[in-house]
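Quick log. Single chain, no ligands specified.
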Amino acid sequence: MVKESTRELEQRNEEISIHYSVVSTLNQSLDLEKTFSESLKTLIGVMKADAGVIWMLDNRRRRFAIVASSGVEINPEREQKYSELFEFIGDKIITGGQMWSSENLTVDERIEGITLPSEEECLAIVGIPLKSKDKVLAIMYLLYKNIRALTSREEDLFLSIGSHIGIAIENSLLFAKLLRH
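-> predicted structure:
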């Protein structure tokens, strides 16, 4: 009983620490690029991911694209390689508003027929909706080189963090719009 209570307190403490890390990162800037890069670095670190990207509507290209990355170099060839997977998962996230994850892409039947990155680059993936007012503004993908299953607590944590980042994105977009006028 004591061990269970201790473990529960340790988990809650870790969750609070992760929230604090993300929120303090978000409060540092209204610059969208900085918000993206710092959020990615923080979440990759605390969730022990190998890399991460943010996929968002790019108004210049008039399509969804990778607008930030950390831990992986994104060039046009690599972006093309990931785009089919991100579009498939992104459609599910935008439509349902919920996160999407695969602990092992090579055996996940939901993505049958989708071109996948090499196993050395990405074996597991988590897609986190970054939303504000129930609207998905962007999606953060965390990439893992090893099999990675999520607990229900981690899923709840990701959704909460996604909402914090979504609000920061909306604030940054509103601030940029204000500066243009």
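The chain has four helices and five strands.
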